[in-house]
Amino acid sequence: QDEDTKVGERRTSDDLKSLWRKAIHQQILLLRMEKENQKLEASRDELQSKKIKLDYVEICERDASAVWDKKLNCRTKIRVDMEEVLATLKEGVPKSRRGEIWQFLAVQYRLRHRLSNKQQPPDVSYKELLKQLTAQQHAIQ
Fold first, then answer.
1. Of 9, 14, 89, 122, which sits with the fewest C-beta atoms within 10 Å of its C-beta?
2. Which of 55, 109, 49, 123 has its CA nearest to residue 80?
3. Model-level pTM?
4. What is the spatial distance between Cα 101 and Cα 82, in angstroms, rounded to a whole number?
5. For the purposes of burial, counting CB atoms within 10 Å of the CB of 71, is it exposed (0-12), middle (13-18) or buried (19 or more)?
6. How confident is residue 2, by pLDDT bands cut at 50, 70 and 90?
7. SS3 at position 10
8. CB proximity list for 126: less than 8 A, separation 6 or greater
9. How far apart are CA 116 and CA 105, in angstroms?
Protein backbone atom coordinates (compact mmCIF):
# COMPACT_ATOMS: atom_id res chain seq x y z
CA GLN A 1 0.00 0.00 0.00
CA ASP A 2 2.95 2.34 0.58
CA GLU A 3 3.88 2.03 -3.14
CA ASP A 4 0.39 3.11 -4.15
CA THR A 5 0.55 6.26 -2.05
CA LYS A 6 4.01 7.15 -3.41
CA VAL A 7 3.01 6.83 -7.06
CA GLY A 8 -0.46 8.23 -6.52
CA GLU A 9 -3.84 6.79 -6.72
CA ARG A 10 -4.51 4.21 -9.38
CA ARG A 11 -6.74 5.55 -12.09
CA THR A 12 -9.89 3.82 -13.07
CA SER A 13 -10.51 2.65 -16.61
CA ASP A 14 -13.06 5.46 -17.06
CA ASP A 15 -10.43 8.02 -16.08
CA LEU A 16 -7.96 6.52 -18.58
CA LYS A 17 -10.59 6.49 -21.34
CA SER A 18 -11.37 10.13 -20.60
CA LEU A 19 -7.68 11.06 -20.74
CA TRP A 20 -7.26 9.23 -24.06
CA ARG A 21 -10.32 10.97 -25.51
CA LYS A 22 -8.95 14.31 -24.39
CA ALA A 23 -5.51 13.57 -25.89
CA ILE A 24 -7.03 12.43 -29.20
CA HIS A 25 -9.30 15.48 -29.33
CA GLN A 26 -6.34 17.79 -28.68
CA GLN A 27 -4.31 16.03 -31.39
CA ILE A 28 -7.16 16.47 -33.89
CA LEU A 29 -7.43 20.16 -33.00
CA LEU A 30 -3.68 20.56 -33.39
CA LEU A 31 -3.76 18.95 -36.84
CA ARG A 32 -6.65 21.19 -37.89
CA MET A 33 -4.80 24.26 -36.69
CA GLU A 34 -1.64 23.24 -38.55
CA LYS A 35 -3.64 22.68 -41.74
CA GLU A 36 -5.32 26.09 -41.34
CA ASN A 37 -1.92 27.73 -40.77
CA GLN A 38 -0.64 26.14 -43.98
CA LYS A 39 -3.65 27.49 -45.89
CA LEU A 40 -3.13 30.97 -44.43
CA GLU A 41 0.56 30.90 -45.27
CA ALA A 42 -0.18 29.79 -48.84
CA SER A 43 -2.77 32.54 -49.26
CA ARG A 44 -0.34 35.10 -47.80
CA ASP A 45 2.33 33.98 -50.28
CA GLU A 46 -0.15 34.22 -53.15
CA LEU A 47 -1.17 37.73 -52.10
CA GLN A 48 2.48 38.72 -51.83
CA SER A 49 3.19 37.47 -55.34
CA LYS A 50 0.14 39.34 -56.68
CA LYS A 51 1.34 42.49 -54.95
CA ILE A 52 4.77 42.10 -56.52
CA LYS A 53 3.15 41.71 -59.94
CA LEU A 54 1.21 44.96 -59.45
CA ASP A 55 4.10 46.93 -57.93
CA TYR A 56 6.52 46.84 -60.81
CA VAL A 57 8.99 49.39 -61.98
CA GLU A 58 8.09 50.74 -65.36
CA ILE A 59 10.68 49.68 -67.91
CA CYS A 60 9.20 51.71 -70.73
CA GLU A 61 11.79 53.58 -72.73
CA ARG A 62 11.62 57.39 -72.57
CA ASP A 63 11.31 57.59 -76.35
CA ALA A 64 8.21 55.37 -76.17
CA SER A 65 6.33 58.02 -74.19
CA ALA A 66 7.01 60.61 -76.88
CA VAL A 67 5.93 58.21 -79.64
CA TRP A 68 2.71 57.37 -77.78
CA ASP A 69 2.04 61.06 -77.22
CA LYS A 70 2.33 61.63 -80.97
CA LYS A 71 0.08 58.65 -81.79
CA LEU A 72 -2.58 59.56 -79.24
CA ASN A 73 -2.65 63.25 -80.17
CA CYS A 74 -3.43 62.55 -83.80
CA ARG A 75 -7.04 61.91 -84.77
CA THR A 76 -7.96 58.48 -83.33
CA LYS A 77 -10.50 57.65 -86.04
CA ILE A 78 -7.71 57.38 -88.63
CA ARG A 79 -6.54 53.89 -89.42
CA VAL A 80 -2.88 53.45 -88.41
CA ASP A 81 -0.40 50.91 -89.77
CA MET A 82 -0.50 47.94 -87.35
CA GLU A 83 3.17 47.10 -87.90
CA GLU A 84 3.99 50.58 -86.62
CA VAL A 85 1.66 50.13 -83.64
CA LEU A 86 3.19 46.72 -82.80
CA ALA A 87 6.69 48.20 -82.96
CA THR A 88 5.60 50.98 -80.61
CA LEU A 89 4.01 48.44 -78.25
CA LYS A 90 7.30 46.52 -78.12
CA GLU A 91 9.09 49.67 -76.96
CA GLY A 92 6.76 49.83 -73.98
CA VAL A 93 3.49 51.28 -72.76
CA PRO A 94 3.68 54.07 -70.17
CA LYS A 95 1.67 53.12 -67.10
CA SER A 96 0.09 56.57 -66.92
CA ARG A 97 -1.27 56.34 -70.50
CA ARG A 98 -2.52 52.73 -70.48
CA GLY A 99 -6.20 53.62 -70.52
CA GLU A 100 -5.83 55.92 -73.49
CA ILE A 101 -3.70 53.37 -75.32
CA TRP A 102 -6.27 50.61 -74.74
CA GLN A 103 -8.94 52.93 -76.10
CA PHE A 104 -6.75 53.73 -79.12
CA LEU A 105 -6.21 50.01 -79.77
CA ALA A 106 -9.96 49.35 -79.46
CA VAL A 107 -10.71 52.05 -82.03
CA GLN A 108 -8.07 50.61 -84.36
CA TYR A 109 -9.66 47.16 -83.98
CA ARG A 110 -13.10 48.60 -84.77
CA LEU A 111 -11.75 50.34 -87.87
CA ARG A 112 -10.34 47.04 -89.15
CA HIS A 113 -13.30 44.84 -88.18
CA ARG A 114 -16.48 46.63 -89.07
CA LEU A 115 -19.49 45.43 -87.09
CA SER A 116 -23.14 46.15 -87.70
CA ASN A 117 -24.57 49.08 -85.73
CA LYS A 118 -26.39 46.71 -83.37
CA GLN A 119 -23.15 44.89 -82.48
CA GLN A 120 -21.08 48.07 -82.20
CA PRO A 121 -20.32 48.80 -78.52
CA PRO A 122 -21.15 52.34 -77.41
CA ASP A 123 -18.37 54.96 -77.36
CA VAL A 124 -17.70 55.75 -73.73
CA SER A 125 -14.90 58.03 -72.63
CA TYR A 126 -12.13 56.60 -70.50
CA LYS A 127 -13.03 58.98 -67.67
CA GLU A 128 -16.59 57.62 -67.68
CA LEU A 129 -15.27 54.05 -67.62
CA LEU A 130 -13.11 54.92 -64.61
CA LYS A 131 -16.20 56.04 -62.70
CA GLN A 132 -17.72 52.58 -63.08
CA LEU A 133 -16.77 49.98 -60.46
CA THR A 134 -15.08 46.79 -61.57
CA ALA A 135 -13.51 43.75 -59.93
CA GLN A 136 -10.11 44.89 -61.28
CA GLN A 137 -10.44 48.49 -60.06
CA HIS A 138 -6.92 48.51 -58.57
CA ALA A 139 -5.34 47.54 -61.89
CA ILE A 140 -7.23 50.12 -63.97
CA GLN A 141 -6.09 53.16 -62.07
1. 122
2. 109
3. 0.44
4. 14
5. middle
6. very low
7. coil
8. 99, 100, 103
9. 19
